């Protein structure tokens, strides 16, 4: 079944004062998909999100969100889109609950929904805390809850787990997977390749305003798996990396028969390694 396309970019380009920040990006994102937009600092991720959310005009090319050209994004589209960026915009002197209530009022959302959402992001027991007293992870989850109040069809997340401890990041991942399964399309930027490999259905690797590779994370890694090899752990604790060859196949067969093989996995590169191979740069 082909799901509906909710974001489409076609040769999208942006120039700031004669400097080219985006050089003709084309991609599509479908409902129920987590799309990872991966690139180092300055590669153009925020610029792309700003264009797709109608905050910045492109220099050339076109893009549509929920069928509407980005130049014409209006209230009807905003009501179906959630945006989480660094700029949290929480009301520091209000409680967690009031921060959501004020938006629920604006959006015409029932208050019972706030409680449900607070439970979902693990903030219900902190609902009376002032926003200024929240930890970074809690504040991040509150911003996410606010973006989810109106149950958006498309969610833009700029580095949603940067600076979070592993268990909070894990909780955010779980929530994102639930949203995706309910049909939300998630456009996610991250530096974190492990996160992308784990979460994303599709990734686009961005370098200096150009998409240098794209596809499902596993397929991208396998494409660069030129020197096929196997990582092997034997019962005598020996760890080996062997090339794909008839000799290796024979050895594996022997270890299997003599019950010496503890673990074996193929040594395809990680997304991080693919990115370095393509660009000569790390994703920091
Ligand atoms: N308002 C602006 N005026 C001029 N140049 C800009 C402006 N905003 C961004 N740029 C430039 O455009 C390029 C892409 O920036 P952008 O913020 O989109 O990158 P990014 O991938 O989001 O980086 P980061 O991960 O650090 O947020 C950079 O070279 C940046 O200096």
Automatic annotation (TrEMBL):
Origin: domain of life: Bacteria
Gene Ontology molecular function terms on file: ATP binding; ATP hydrolysis activity
Pfam families registered for this protein in UniProt: ABC_tran (PF00005)
Membrane-spanning segments: none
Record's GO cellular component terms: plasma membrane
InterPro entries: AAA+_ATPase (IPR003593), ABC_transporter-like_ATP-bd (IPR003439), ABC_transporter-like_CS (IPR017871), ABC_transporter_ATP-binding (IPR050763), P-loop_NTPase (IPR027417)
Positions of the ABC transporter domain: 7-233
SMART domains the UniProt entry points to: AAA (SM00382)
Compartment(s): Cell membrane
Keywords assigned by UniProt, alphabetized: ATP-binding, Cell membrane, Membrane, Nucleotide-binding, Translocase, Transport
Gene3D superfamilies the UniProt entry points to: P-loop containing nucleotide triphosphate hydrolases
Primary location recorded for the protein, binned into one broad class: membrane
Name of the protein described by the UniProt record: ABC-2 type transport system ATP-binding protein
């Amino acid at each position: 079944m082909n799901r509906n396309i909710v974001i489409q970019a076609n040769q999208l380009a942006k120039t700031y004062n004669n400097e080219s920040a985006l050089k003709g990006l084309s991609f599509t994102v479908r409902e129920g998909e987590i799309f990872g937009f991966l690139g180092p600092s300055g590669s153009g991720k925020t610029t792309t999100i700003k264009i797709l959310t109608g905050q910045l005009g492109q220099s050339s090319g076109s893009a549509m969100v929920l069928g509407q050209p980005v130049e014409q994004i209006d209230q009807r589209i905003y009501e179906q889109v959630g945006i989480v960026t660094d700029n949290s915009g929480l009301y520091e002197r209000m409680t967690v609950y009031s921060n959501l209530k004020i938006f629920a009022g604006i959006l015409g959302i029932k208050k019972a929904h706030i409680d449900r959402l607070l439970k979902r992001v693990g903030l219900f027991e902190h609902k009376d805390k002032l926003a200024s007293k929240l930890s970074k992870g809690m504040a991040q989850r509150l911003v996410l809850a606010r973006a989810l109040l109106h149950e958006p069809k498309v969610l833009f997340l700029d580095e949603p787990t940067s600076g979070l401890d592993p268990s909070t990041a894990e909780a955010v991942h779980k929530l994102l997977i639930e949203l995706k399964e309910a049909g939300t399309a998630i456009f996610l930027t991250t530096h974190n390749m492990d996160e992308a490999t784990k979460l994303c259905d599709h990734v686009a690797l961005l370098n200096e305003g150009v998409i240098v590779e794209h596809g499902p994370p596993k397929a991208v890694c396998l494409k660069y798996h030129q020197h096929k090899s196997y990582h092997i752990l034997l019962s005598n604790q020996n760890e080996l990396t062997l090339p794909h060859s008839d000799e290796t196949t024979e050895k594996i067969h022997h270890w299997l028969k003599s019950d010496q093989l503890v673990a074996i996995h193929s040594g395809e590169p990680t997304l991080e390694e693919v990115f370095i191979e393509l660009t000569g740069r790390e994703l920091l």
